[in-house]
Amino acid sequence: MISWRKHYKKTLIAIGLLLSTSASFYGQDGDPKNGEKLFKANCTACHALDKQVIGPPLKGVVERVKTEGGVDRDWLHKWIKDNKALRASGDKYANEIFEKYNKTEMLQFPNLTEKDIDDILAFTTNPPAPEEKKAEATPATDATAAAPADKTTTNIVIISLLAIAGLLVWILLKLRQLVKLGQSEELAGLNETRVRSFREMYEKFHYVGKAVIAILAILAAYGVWNWLMWIGVYKGYKPEQPIYFSHKIHAGEQKIDCQLCHSSAKYGKVSEIPSMNVCMNCHRTISEYNADHYMEPGKDKAFYDGEIQKIYAATGWDPAKQQYTGKTQPVEWTRIHNMPDFVYFNHSQHVIAGEQAIINSFNKKNPNNKIDVVCKACHGKIDTMNVVQMANDFTMGWCIECHRTTEVDMNNGYNKEYFKNLHDKLKKQYPQDGGKITVAAIGGLECGKCHY
C-alpha cells in the first residue's frame, strides 16, 4: 500500500512538471495583458497578430517555430534580444527566416527582460479578448430623447397655423370694409384728391424721391466696392480632397509635428504638399484604422480603411506582398492657401526669424485662444480640423495689421547685433509705440518687401 502511494505521488509530480513545462513552452506562463502593452510598444511597427506586415504574423509564433524549425522558447528569447548575433552564430533556422523575409533585419531588444519576453509570447499565444464597447443608445431610448423635441416642433406648427388663420380673418374683415366704402359717397370724395399720374406724384414728392435715389445710389456704390474688395478672399474655404486626411487625427490625436510632413515650411520659401512617400513612412505598417477612441460623426472604420487603400493605390504598394508594384496613380489635391503671383511671401522668414515674435504677439492679442506653434497664427488651429479650411482673410490689410502690431524680438542674438546702432533712432522715430520696435518700424510696410 505504501509503495503504491509513493508511486502515485511520483506520478502526480511528473504530470505536474510535464504540464508546467508544456505551458512554459507555449508562452502561457507570462502575463498576456502586460504582453499586449509591450507588444504595442515594441512590435507593432513591423508585426501584427493575424497578418504579415514587414515581418510575419506573430499569433501562435511559439508553436510555429517549434513546427517549422524545431526550436523552443529559449531560441525565441535569443532571437528577440539579438537576432543578429544569433544569425552570426550560424543558427540555421535564424538565417532561413532572414532570407525568407528579404533580408530585412529585425530590431534588437536587449532592454527587454526575460519576463517581458515571456509576457509578449503569452500574448501572441493567447491574446486577451477585446473589451466590449459600451452599448450605444437603443432606438427606443433615442425615440424617448427625441420626444420632447418632436412635441416642441408640433407646438410651433400649431401656433404658426393659428397665426396664419388669424391673419386671413383680419384680411377678410378689411376687404369687407373696403367693399362697404366703395358703396358709399365717401369714395367719390377720395377720388377727387388722389394722384392721377406719375408726373403729378413726382411733382408732389420730388424732394423725397431725390433723397431716396441718392441713398440707393450710395448703397449700390458701397455694395459694388465691397464686392470688389472681397474678390479672391476665401476665408472658411474647405474643399473635399481626393484622399481624406484628418489633421485632427494626425496632428491632434497622434501629436505629429507639422514640419514632419511640411518639411520645407521652415527652411524654404514655399510649404510644399508632402509626397505620398511621406505618408508611407507610417502607413506601410498601418494598414487599418484602429483608433476607436476617436471616430468622426458619420464615419466608421471601413471609411478610414478605404482611404488608406487609396494611399496604397497612389504609391503602388501591395500590402499583401509588402512591396511596390511600380504602378502609381498621381493624386490631384485641391489647393487651399494660394498667394497671388504678385505677392512675395517667404515661409522660412516667418517660421524661423519671426517664430517667437509672432507667437508672443498672437497670444497677447488672443489671451483666451493662445497658440504654441507659429503655423497656427496664420493657418488656425489645424490640429482641431478634420477638414482643413482657410482660417484667416490673407488680405493685404490683414498682413499689414500683423506687421504693425508684432513686436520684433530684440533679445534675439541676430537682431540684437544687426540693429545695435538703430535702437535709439527707432525709439525716437516711433515714440507712439512706447519704445517698442515693431516689424513696421524695420521696413515691414515698404511696398518692395512684398511686391517687386
Secondary structure topology:
Blueprint lengths: L1 H24 L6 H11 L18 H9 L3 H16 L3 H9 L13 H12 L13 H44 L3 H8 L4 H32 L17 H7 L4 H4 L2 H4 L8 H8 L17 H15 L1 E2 L4 E2 L22 H7 L1 H11 L9 H5 L16 H10 L7 H6 L4 H7 L17 H4 L2
Antiparallel strand pairs: 1-2
Helix pairs in contact: 2-6, 4-5, 13-14, 15-16
Taken in chain order, the helices and strands follow as HHHHHHHHHHHHHHEEHHHHHHH
Number of strand elements: 2
Q: Count of helices? A: 21
Average pLDDT, rounded to a whole number, is: 81
Strand content: under 5%
Biased composition (Low complexity): 137-146
Region (Disordered): 127-146
Organism: Chryseobacterium indologenes (Flavobacterium indologenes)
GO molecular function, one term: electron transfer activity
